Amino acid sequence: KSNKFNYTNMTSRRQFFKYLLAIAIVPIPVLSAVSKKIFSNKFSVPRLELGERKGKDVYFNLNIQKGLSQILPGKATPTWGINQPFLGTTLRAKKGDSVHINVSNSLSRTTTLHWHGVKLPAKADGGPHQPIHPGKTWLSEYEINQPAASLWYHAHQMHETGEQVYNGLAGMFIVDDDESKLLGLPSEYGIDDFPVIIQDKEINKDGSFEYIGRFDVEAGMMGKMGETILVNGVTNSLLSAQKSLIRLRILNGSNARIYNLQFDDNRSFKIIASDGGLLEESVSVNNITIAPAERIEIVVDVSDGARITLIHNAQMDGMGNMESSEMGFFETIAMSIFADDSPPKNYNIFQIDASKALPSSTTVPIKLSTHQDISQEPIAERRTMLLKMEDGSPFTTMTVAILGSKDLMTINGKSMDINRIDEVVKAGTVEVWKIVNASMMAHPFHIHNVQFKVLNKMHGIKGHELGYKDVVLVQPGETLEVVMKFPDFRDDKTPYMYHCHILEHEDRGMMGQFVVV
Fold it and tell me: What are the b/e assignments for 420-458, b being 16+ CB within 10 Å?
């Protein structure tokens, strides 16, 4: 039995298909194993931008640009960034603000900038319908009408989201409110409150990023994963703690990898917030699982002065389990080719040195907030979203996989069509969506413009999934339900997206559109 997949009698088939498709297969990258070495690269704190404030109006000017970054020693890596060479600066505003964001595109490629997790008008969303052409500027304006949260922003260009985010077009957007400030949580940016954007990259010997080649079947199907872990754009980084209580706003900014995070000494920490903001109560845990695009805020006590490492426990490395009898033809082939029978390993994310940390005056109260139970309101509509990874006959499916079709993945039997509206939602109503994963791997499902609550999950609702979410991880063979109330933004011409947030799946068709009327 493989540590990644649960099936039997696959060895001979695996060897056969490896031989059959050898020309189309590239080696699967593996992360460097955890070592005992002491990290020395300084933890990077993204520059904080508060914009130009005029009362409740806040103005930001962003430039999408190319840059050069030193990620490997002595190597210059071509990167993309927003107001800096790689990744984006951290934007910060508060509930009740009206933000006005001018986004200029200095690239030679068309791109977009999507405000992930924000409730806002469709024309301000920054999805595929709001392209920013080279040399042009796009204005996004909206009022922040949601609680304090760690949101983010990233490219969302049709069929190119994976590549553009991989190159660096992503950053964090922190929203504050008066209620959260009264809790006494760690909140000094760069002192005891830190963005932690985790990404994995495949880096060539010359320092350049290696994205997906034409015949890279594994990356196209499973999502792009790399062997080098970055935190805020830096490898092997060391955070020198100044305070004994540290708040980490963790964003899984990777294209496809699911992280199973814990500290190497197995110390407990408290989860205080999920995608959409604070939990109702803090939760003490020893580990968390975070899928692409999810955010989890944790507070860790380092008053013992230790040096600790946040690690990724790679037992399944982002893959789920499905019996071979449940797999289709293409999935069986994929499992045969890509199964990895090696034992699970742990991998370094970054280190914290608390030897000079001073006692904190901050606290982590048990009670954090109160959530409205919208599941008790009348349900206006129930919808089903069926996620699949095949699109036809065995021959067709094999062909499109090898040739890199952009329509390999489907929702409700359809691949993304930018000219087709899939669902029509009434503003201000409550809906329940049933998400069915009929594929052999986990999918993080994201809905634009809403924060939802998870109603049920195969293995129970716990930790950050108790909070408001805009991404939920749906395991292989799992059916779950989410409930949400749609904001009162009406536009029958401009759609929002829903999609898998494994970016290669989104780019290859696992995405749909809805309008709110």
Answer: eebbebeeebbbbbebbbbbbbbbbbbbbbbbbbbeebe
Pairing of strands 479-485, 430-437: antiparallel
Q: Which two tokens stand for residue 126?
A: 């920054």
Residue 236 CA: distances (Å) to CA of 194, 228, 350? 16, 9, 6
The pTM of the full predicted model, rounded to 2 decimals, is: 0.88
What distance lies between CA 63 and its chain's CA centroid? 22
Q: Contact 354/308 with Cβ under 8 angstroms?
A: yes
Provide the token pair at 439: 């594929």
- The lowest-confidence range among 79-93, 170-184, 276-290, 406-420 is 406-420
pLDDT tens readout for residues 38-48: 899 999 999 99
How far apart are alpha carbons 77 and 223 in whole angstroms? 22
> 484, 425 in Cβ contact below 8 A?
no
CB 491 within 8 A of CB 121: yes
Contacts of 71 (CB under 8 A, 6+ apart): 77, 201, 203, 207, 228, 230, 233, 234, 235
Cα separation of 34 and 16, whole Å?
33
pLDDT digits (tens, 9 = 90+) for 468-504: 999 999 999 999 999 999 999 999 999 999 999 999 9
Which helix (H) or strand (E) element contains residue 395? helix 394-403
CA 92 to chain centre: 19
Q: Which of 419, 398, 411 is nearest to 329 (CA)?
A: 398
